[in-house]
Amino acid sequence: MTSTDPGPTVPTAGCDHYSKSASPKVWWDAHFTDAAGAVIDFFGGDGISLTGKRVADIGCGDGIIDLGVVTAAQPERLVGFDLLTADVQWLADRAAEHAGLSELPSSLFFATSEPDRLPAEDASFDYVMSWSAFEHIADPVAMLREIRRILVDDGVLFIQLWPFYNTAHGSHLVDWFPEGFAQFRYSNEHILRTVRDAGPDAMAAEMLEVYRTLNGITADDLQAALWRAGFRIVKVALDSEAVHIPEEAAHLPLTSVAVSGIKLLAIKSTPTDGPPESKSALDR
Description:
Structural class: alpha/beta
CATH class of the largest domain: Alpha Beta
Radius of gyration: 19 Å
Oligomer: single chain
């Protein structure tokens, strides 16, 4: 990956809700209302209600989506798992500021997990959800096996992933590379230098860590991982939009470069090796 160095790119503040430069209110609404609503609606489209159920969230991040789901769907309890310890006070302060909540719901919990281990009992959740986390999970099969372990036999798994690595904004660095496909157009050294030089420092450090943890998974790789872990996809919605493909990314399969995201529901099945042609990223 090489290219002529165009110099640092100034972050494009507020360009979209997935940008870390978005305003706090835009970020809040995109997660507390939009993302949480998308989770509830995708389950609900198959007649599945989260009300009164035990729900786990894998890769909960700042917890805004979990709070949105708890507020709107009223599960019995929702536990957000993440490698980093959730800042509950930060979430409570944002909830008071943006949603008028005097305190966090008593049914909302957070727990610190390991990369391949969830601190939960077998069959302790009715439903599991995960929003924009599986592109960062180092061993998707191992984590999916853990999810299978904590899920009841007739439970359902929801996964949303956006954007896939091979797509225009798969680097997650839209603030510095709004033209897209930076992961193919530039070397890693150029990407790191551009982000660090342009700053701001805290935001740059956070997003470079996000970039560093990307696993390169594709939609087909995700399907293969689910098969291996003992899940069968029963419902899927693919995200795609018109995109101009630069020469540096012209070698990518269209099913990889054009499918920008996915939402799916999966249920337990017999583990298999999955389609052999779908193992590229998982076997590297």
